[in-house]
Design brief:
It comes from Prevotella heparinolytica. The chain is mainly α. The protein is built from two helices and no strands.
Length: 79
């Protein structure tokens, strides 16, 4: 839990404020269709879920794979 509360950057805070603001607007105006984007923004902010295609760096503990570890492909269909 403490790991997810540490790395809050500016855009993540913007998503949080947008989600809260849109949520208050949806409840105040009784236009409940706006609750869907509010919940989406809040989930994105809470779980940091907007980086598609490895666009954003994260703390990754995986080992790097080097060229000597990867074996070349040997096709069994040689003629």
């Amino acid at each position: 839990m403490s790991r997810s509360l540490k790395s809050w950057d500016a855009i993540r805070l913007v998503r949080l404020v947008a989600g809260i603001g849109i949520g208050f607007y949806a409840l105040y105006s009784a236009d409940y269709v706006f609750l869907l984007p509010a919940v989406a923004f809040l989930l994105q902010a809470a779980l940091n879920l907007t980086c598609g295609g490895s666009g954003c760096p994260t703390a990754n503990s995986r080992k790097r794979v080097y060229g000597d570890v990867i074996k070349p492909y040997q096709s069994g269909n040689r003629r």
